Amino acid sequence: MSLVALEVNLIIIPGCIIFLLFFLPVAFVSKTVSQLLQIIEKPSFSKLTFLSVIAIATFIAFLSDVAKWHSVYGSKPKPVFPDISIALQHDNKRLRLERNIYIHVLSSVLSLSIKKLSTIDFRKPIIFEKVKRE
Questions:
Q1: For residue range 4-54, what is the model confidence (pLDDT) as tens digits?
Q2: What distance in Å separates the CA atoms of residue 62 and residue 57, rounded to the nearest whole number?
């Protein structure tokens, strides 16, 4: 199993589920998910929490893949290959690298958004006050 498959199965899929659980119209679920994430985020090493480390690592992987894509496929014209199978292999490598870029950026953004949502206190109801106009 590749690292990208592990990233999808261990970060993106559970992250999407947690992200969607925050927005269910059931208050108990949002409170429970928020409390569980606060427990997970509590241990930190010099203010780096678990989700911060995941976000930083996936962002670095994103930047390295973007640099690799730009150096190999960026401004160069597509080479002409004598055989279609070689051309397909070239396109497959490019598409695989682009897929990895999208997976890395999705997991980075998802980790940061879950980290931000976990700081919201769902135990208190949000009360919107009317703005007095003068």
A1: 889 999 999 999 999 998 888 887 888 888 888 888 888 888 889 999 999
A2: 9
The SS3 call for residue 48 is strand
Tokens representing 75 are: 């401004």
Total domains, the chain: 1
Burial class (CB in 10 A: 0-12, 13-18, 19+), 88: exposed
Listed range (65-69, 118-122, 123-127) with the worst mean pLDDT: 123-127
Rounded to 10 degrees, the C-alpha dihedral 55/61/67/69 comes to -120
Q: What global pTM score does this model have?
A: 0.81
Residues 101-113, mean pLDDT to the nearest whole number? 95
Q: Is residue 47 part of a domain?
A: yes
Domain with 46 in it:
3-118
Burial (CB < 10 A; 0-12, 13-18, 19+), residue 118, is buried
Residue 130 within any structural domain of the chain: no
Which of 15, 10, 13, 6 is closest to 115 using CA atoms?
15
Q: Tell me, yes or no, whether 125 lies in a domain.
A: no
Please report whether residue 69 resides in a domain.
yes
